[in-house]
Fold this sequence. Notes:
Helices cover 41% and strands 16% of the residues. By secondary structure, it is of the alpha/beta class. An eight-stranded mixed beta sheet has the order 3-4-2-1-5-6-7-8, with helices on both faces.
Amino acid sequence: MQDSTRRAPVVYWLTEAFFPPLVGGQELIASYLAQGLYARGLQVQVITRQTLPASPARENIQGVAVRRINPPGMLKGKGFGAILPVLGFMVRLAWMLIKDAARYDVVVVSGAKIMPLVVIPLCALLRKKCVLRVESYFELHETISTESMRTMGSRRGRFLFSLLESARNRALRNAHAVIAISAQINAELLKRGVAPAKIVPLPNGVSLRKFRPVTAAERSALRARLSLPDDGRPIVLYAGRMARAKGVPLLIEAWPTLFANHPELYLVLVGSGNRSFDDCEAQVKERVKQLGLERDIAFFPETEAVVEYLQAADLWVFPTEYEGFSLALAEAMGCALTVLATSVGAAPQLIQQGRNGFLFPPLDTQAVIDVFEAALKVRDQWPAIGAAAREAVSQYDLDLIATRYAELCRSLLDGRGPGSNR
């Protein structure tokens, strides 16, 4: 019988960005999982970086304590201009972990770039369990962003990159557990010398109660409320950051050919680029005007109610260049949409070509055109394809994934190790 006087384990979740106020995959999954841990009897403190405009330095969100520390704003892509702010953030973070050492038991680090270099050695010194969550395959290859390398100069950038890469790989190997959200990330961790026993294959989770298909009547009502056409035109949805790395400009360049062949298509883009270092929102909107497609391509601002757009759409397209385990993809599949996604990250694990969605290679305009043609040829099969898509993500229900996170934290504290959570 458990000792009633024993306090609940305390988890410090460290992440560069958090929801609210930021609405992105990494921010949302951190919020979902932190709340999931709290619901399973763990105390959770989120420590994140301040935003612009500033959010409260401290607040409690559905039981989860959130602390935001300076510096604020976007640092990615600023090269040497980011060094002092990043160092300042790391110093504040390290001091907080030292000062609060008696208050927490497990540290979860969201992201495998700079934070692990400080946090993992510090956890070893403080004898705290440390879990590293790798957010994408790409971040394992980009300790310093390409944009930062350019601003630093190639020689200095390469030298600093090699130093940080070596230190980061050492940190990866020293974490108590490393979460791989896709098979691609799992394989990359093995290449970098992480012990197989420390790697925990644990994908992102999606709330299948929230992200669900709707009836035809519900869809019509949503389209009316969202000012979308409901005249039989197939509504194609992209929802996410308006960023070059997400492939949005590529999609727009493919659209004139697609629209010439299929003038019934209606493209809806939901999101903003204002917090992305590779913001392409203005460029994309200008390009749509140049192409004379303003009546057939609609833009909507970033929203917390993206589920409504998913439930109102027929097709979902995701031309991203790289991903880890795309939360947006899982949400679209949960809504039983026919999805067209690049074959990166976890997409090849989730999608069986033609059965529950369609895959295409990234950075290829003709591939975008070809995958749409393939999907449009089987329009009568979209309901069955959507149903198979929802079935494919049933094993990633958020409740199941949050339970596994809680079990992982407890297994580390009980001395059983990450392998006991599989």
